């Protein structure tokens, strides 16, 4: 078993990160496997060396150990470009110049019960779908045509292990993906690639056998299963864990600095207190 924790160093680690990292670490150790740390620092504008250093320090303080050197996503540019070429070769990509407000303006009036937002924000209405990569302009993002992608992939079964609401067998379906996720961005303006592509390519490069992540990423997992299939890469086992909630049962905000590990450390808590707070057994 090879698991990983892959924070984006764009802010401090908080309790939710601690839970995910400790769980991935505990699962690997219990199986006699390996736990890897990766820095998902592909966003060069928002990633900061200070957050990276703090994350490493917090994880070590929690008792987590990993082999070095750590993989830096920002160094994987060649792998990402190769993956984009494979998808382009299958005719699945198109350039997109839409801004967030263009997308909001072009989206149909919402119908009751029909989702308007997916894991990447507003579901893309397909404005640029007619464009071809030959017409790529500097500053464009690149999107994947999901209907074409799923037609190229066929029906895809996948399995998620234990934990949370999503355990069991699943199938990817084009209409469902288009209605709940939309054509995803695979490369952003000025960046080698975007999150979904990076994570699939790097999980493969690191031979991750089990991806341990929060259940909020379940829709992202569906995209990752599809991308891995199209890129002829293996699909790891996905384990979606429940999210850490506050005392009132509310899910912790991603950027709640009051729950930063650094803050608990400064308040004098011990690593065992953090384990207890997120409901993990003492080691
Ligand atoms: N860098 C991603 C994050 O911090 C990794 C999550 C994942 O792909 O499991 O949200």
Automatic annotation (TrEMBL):
Its EC number is 6.1.1.-. One of its GO terms (molecular function) is glutamate-tRNA ligase activity. One of its GO terms (biological process) is glutamyl-tRNA aminoacylation. GO terms for cellular component: cytosol. The keyword Repressor does not apply. Keywords: Aminoacyl-tRNA synthetase, ATP-binding, Ligase, Metal-binding, Nucleotide-binding, Protein biosynthesis, Zinc. Belongs to the class-I aminoacyl-tRNA synthetase family. PANTHER family: GLUTAMATE--TRNA LIGASE (PTHR43311), GLUTAMYL-Q TRNA(ASP) SYNTHETASE (PTHR43311:SF1). This is tRNA glutamyl-Q(34) synthetase GluQRS. It comes from Yoonia rhodophyticola. The gene is gluQRS.
